[in-house]
Amino acid sequence: MQPIRGNVEAVEGALRSFAGGPAWVHAEWIPGGFLRNMRVDVTAAYVRGGGPYRVALRCAGDAWVRIEDVTDWELDPEGRLCLLAWGDAEQRLSRTLEISPRPFPA
Question: What region, left, alpha or beta, does residue 34 occupy, with left being phi > 0 and alpha being psi -120 to 50 degrees?
Fold first, then answer.
């Protein structure tokens, strides 16, 4: 993982690479729930704020995927982008959003 601060353009570029075709989303929020392998057609992507950041994907059909308080990111060799939001001073994970060009393993 690396911080988004100083890498906002790279994160936006990675997000925008999913535009124009299908992508699959995995999201978790703690406590509470998750979704896995939600297929979306990304039309635009945004990173906003001065840190922590808000990340949003605009999708076909007037749908949006959004996560707040994101501080870290990673793009793996398979093209999957992972965004993390930490919940407290003890660095416990509160939210995660992963985007993939292919469905995630079951």
Answer: beta
